[in-house]
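Page 47, continued from p. 46.
Same chain as before, 401 aa.
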Amino acid sequence: MRFSHYIGSVFVAAGMAFAGGVPVAAQEAVKPLVIGVVEDRSGGSTFYSQESVKAIKLFTDMINDGEFLFAKDTVGSEPGILGRKIELIFEDDENNPNNTVVKARRLLERGAQVLFFLSGSGATTQGRVVCTEQKVLCVAPTNVSQKLVEAPNNDYIFTIAPQSALTAQAYIEAWKKLGYKRVAGVKDSTATSKILGDTYQAAWEAAGFETVAVETVEVGAPDANAQMLRVRNAKPDVIMDLFASASEAAAMYRSKSRLNIATPTFATNTLTATPHIWQLAGDAVNGALVVDTIGVSNPNTGELRKAYDGKYGANTMVWLHPMVWDGLIVLKKAAETAGSTDGTALRDEIVKMKDFPSSFGQPGFTLNFGADRHNGAGKHGLVVVEFADRTPSRVWDVYQP
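Result:
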């Protein structure tokens, strides 16, 4: 054997393979960490999905640049995750549950190692099947349906936002304080709205409230006059906005105003997540009350707001954005503790997380996970806000969780 061949054999045998003068192992180590994002660009959840997409793009850039704000005490200041830059790739599921499984699988085929679901809860409920099948970590930071983290197919999916059952309890406590007894619900015809509507209605009925009407506005309807007339005739003490679609929600508020319906209106946090509704509804949205997650006194929220508004303009941060930030920071901590992006290893680290610093909720609120707790939120992650001047600009002084 010639000496040069012998030397080459030694290097290969020792695992010292090179390409372009750089060890292959070293090249692998610096490859980007690919996060696949299921978004909605054209369906019923477009407006709040695209708000979340804006957030994940900005926060990924910040993490890649080593900007961790208050979270640096928890995750340090090394840029990226495991020393690797994050790369985002996207697929549009159109908020259609029939598409979500296909799009999630396509993202994995394109090289995604972790999935973030930023579409509607109904669609994500279908898509989570892929997480279990492929044993890949999935994060649905903004989805509020508790069904997402319930068996079956919940082993590898985690959520950040307070669940609808938790926020429903806050509404119920507020309604009891105000002496309400009769509730009317108004929703749209999307799968997400149906899931949320069923959850809230079951909660208020279990608490002893009477459902006097449930009206559905078909997606694409120009107004909600007929539905709101029936609501008015039912004489509820309170109207619950259960919409997941922006145009139809705004139509409901305009019809309510046009018909001079003075009944107090509470809304799910789809309303605070979707500035497009505020724009379409105009002054008709004033007075609506929402159990949200953003207050004015949490310093962590203030830091994140400064960063977000610095990119997108003053007063542009909505409750969706902190959820995305927390989801990414949880992922970084889990990966660097495990030393891996393997789905099972990541899952096993997240379920150990207790008192994890959060960017939302009341001051001092933290995220807590567990083997049977794949949603990290709790009661003190909630803040009740009131719309004035077409924005959720007031912390309600009647009740707070």
